[in-house]
Amino acid sequence: xxxxxxxxxxxxxTGGSLRLSCTVSGYKPRTKCMAWFRQTPGKEREAVASIHAxxxxxxxxxxxxxxxTISQDNDQxxxxxxxxxxxxxxxxxxSCAAQVFVSDSSLCDxxxxxxxxxxxxxxTPVTVSS
Length: 130
What we know:
By secondary structure, the protein is mainly beta. The protein has strands at residues 3-7, 10-13, 18-25, 32-39, 46-52, 58-60, 68-72, 78-83, 92-100, 119-120, 124-129. It is 0% helix and 48% strand.
């Protein structure tokens, strides 16, 4: 059973930084995609970024390009989302997600293929204030 556990959320002022972490268990092979999504009440869930554990190919939503960076540790067990230059509109609950048995890293694109993500963490809140 694939399980995801997020950490690192919190409150920060506009322009500040936070780093989120997501640890995956139950699936060790590199043939997986890991992604971050976010959601605020009353809005649809939004893809943020993703990375393929095998080739490291990453994708970003236009709204976070140049500010957020997704990365993984050497064991492809923990995925990080470094968030810089945070804006008030980045306030949301951020959830980690995974899809497994994926060799083609193009399928990791969370904007094009959000429905391929089968496993989800419980989410961690991020609040950005002025």
